[in-house]
Amino acid sequence: MERGNLLAVLDRFSEPTDSLALLRCARNDGVMINFPYLCINMCKYNLKATFKKHKLQLKRPAGTSRGVLTSKISWFIVVRDEENPNVHGIGEAGILPGLSIDDPNKTENKLNEICQNINDYRFYLEKGLIDFPAIRFGLETALIDLEKNGKRVLFPSGFTKGTDSIEINGLVWMGKFDFMRKQIVEKIESGFSCIKLKIGAIGFDEEITLIKSIRNEFSENDIEIRVDANGAFSKKNALDKLKILSGHNLHSIEQPIKQGQWEEMAKLCETSPLSIALDEELIGIEPKANKRKLLETIKPQYIILKPGLLGGFGQSEEWIELAGDNNMGWWITSALESNIGLNAIAQWTYTLGNKMPQGLGTGQLYANNFESPLAIEKGGLHYVPGQNWDLKDLF
Q1: pTM for this model (two decimals)
Q2: Phi-psi label, residue 49: left if phi above 0, alpha if psi -120 to 50, beta otherwise
Q3: Which residues are catalytic?
């Protein structure tokens, strides 16, 4: 459905109405799914907004092929109606160095600008934040939260009622062999049936040994293994490594070579015996025509969507629609958000009806995360309705 047609439909439901994203349908594994309405009628509000910077401390260093993280900065956008200031919506804008396209040196100036002009939010969501996708995600989330009475229940469902959960993968960070092996054992013992390994930092032979150790005990029917190279392979050796990895019954590999090499990635997707999922490749690709061009050029088997890095739910839905048009699979992952961002992404993800394991298990990484209703049990992400939020650090 095109934007003009959608707005005409929405006008029959409320007047006036602003649409933060399109209602679309896409095919996932042969099943038609309907996206939730992301529609906000903010004209009834006199909006005020503030933001706060918060440094999240990891419990232990997290290693990827891009380096080791010990902390992460997020900015939290708080939106209120001047007539009802005790109700507020909160959204998170988090930047990952070397991955986000947002310029961290310009982030606070842009946030100040938005807060001063918050009633022009539609401009910022549609045009004014193309170079700041993390902020666009945070603003979109804060507005949806405010519209839903500021209770951090953005998309009511069986998930938020606590009657259903989201299957997630267990993430194994890079490190020395023994450290990675310990993580694998912990994940399997705690009930995960899908393990995702970050690879590309230690020797490739050691990583193969780790994978073999899993397969020696668990078949692909017992444990699904995904690997994420974060672009660590070179153009020269990528295909050889993919062939070796494919001999161990893996589900897929994320981003084997660095993004921006469309022709080389297309060759790999065509010739690799192991399914390839694009991740970093999607970041910063706009408008929709360029998204379509990327997918039709590279032809990956899967795409991975991080709303916090892609510019929010509306942008992510465009990718899902295009993936459906091209018979490509997809799943959702967080981008090391705190529980505030993770909560929004998880609730939205549940409404999409994708039953593949999602990448939403990062909430336990931080020593100073916000207490929330989110909990992980037996390889699933759960929402516990009786558990209150602790947001005192933001107010």
Answers
A1: 0.89
A2: beta
A3: 198, 306
